[in-house]
């Protein structure tokens, strides 16, 4: 039976690899590498460095172009589903064409496969199609959320308080929820900027990498600085991945 390993590789620091992830890389025959274009070449480079450091010869690298996603359409959910299906086509071809019987393939996933990542959904779609037979296993990874709170030397949770995880799009649409601690991911428009002094923000970009940027403080005092840093970094690198924790200063 063919096997697929979906391996969480952490938020950017090569030392984020767990022992379980290192062992999984070491027993892989072929790795699927999705090329996201020249602007994000360093993301591919980090994956290749991890493979070179921990894989066992002989192994194969299989490269494919990551499908483009329409980020302008108001039909956001439909666009994501269509993009996931095109990714599933790549996964299916990888299993069918690149893996021999009883071989193991792997996909290295930024952060953790279970937190705002499409890989699992794509693999599950391939399973549902039933065109290729394989088993798959998920290897947990250190998330950007864990890296964020560690770098800011703060906890994710407080005693008897819930944590809400959401996206910048939802925060902009709905505003802060009842939770006193809110993790926000995928916020291209700095939806936090209009919040008042009751919220403290712990913000981080390129967590775990040499380009890491950290800012914290009351939202009204640091919002402009974060926006400026974010815009400058995105212009310089061509992409940005950032995450932040909003913490209500006076819990309800």
3D structure, described in words:
This protein is 36% helix and 24% strand. The chain has helices at 19-26, 41-54, 76-98, 119-129, 144-151, 168-174, 219-237; strands at 2-8, 30-35, 60-65, 104-109, 134-139, 163-167, 181-185, 199-205, 213-218, 242-248. Strand 8 and strand 9 (213-218) form a beta hairpin. The longest helix is centred in the middle third of the chain and has 23 residues, at 76-98. The chain is globular and about 60 Å long. It starts with a strand and ends with a strand. The mean pLDDT is 93.
User: Which strand order does the major sheet show?
Assistant: 3-2-4-1-5
Range of strand content: 15-25%
Shape: globular
Oligomeric state, counting identical vs distinct chains:
single chain
The secondary-structure class comes to alpha/beta
Task: Give the tally of β-strands.
Answer: 10
Mean pLDDT: 93
Helical region count? 7
Major β-sheet annotation: 5 strands, parallel
Helix and strand succession? EHEHEHEHEHEHEEEHE
């Amino acid at each position: 039976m063919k096997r697929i390993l979906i391996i969480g590789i952490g938020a950017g620091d090569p030392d984020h690899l767990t022992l379980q992830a290192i062992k999984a890389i070491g027993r892989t025959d072929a790795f699927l590498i999705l090329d996201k274009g020249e602007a994000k070449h360093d993301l591919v480079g980090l994956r290749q460095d991890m493979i070179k450091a921990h894989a066992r010869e002989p192994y194969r690298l299989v490269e494919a172009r990551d499908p483009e996603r329409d980020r302008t359409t108001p039909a956001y959910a439909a666009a994501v589903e269509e993009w996931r299906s095109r990714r599933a086509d790549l996964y299916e071809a990888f299993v069918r064409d690149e893996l021999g019987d009883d071989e193991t393939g792997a996909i290295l996933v930024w952060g953790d496969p279970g937190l705002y990542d499409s890989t699992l959904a794509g693999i599950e779609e391939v399973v549902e199609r039933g065109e290729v037979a394989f088993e798959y296993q998920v290897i947990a990874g250190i998330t950007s959320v864990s890296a964020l709170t560690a770098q800011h030397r703060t906890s994710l949770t407080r005693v008897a308080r819930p944590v809400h995880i959401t996206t910048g799009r939802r925060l902009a649409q709905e505003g802060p929820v009842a939770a006193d601690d809110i993790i926000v991911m995928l916020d291209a428009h700095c939806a936090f900027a209009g919040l008042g002094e009751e919220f403290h923000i712990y913000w981080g970009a390129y967590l775990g990498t040499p380009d890491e940027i950290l800012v914290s403080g009351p939202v009204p005092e640091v919002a402009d600085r974060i926006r400026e840093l974010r815009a400058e970094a995105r212009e310089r690198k061509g992409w940005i991945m950032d995450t932040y924790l909003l913490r209500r200063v006076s819990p309800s």
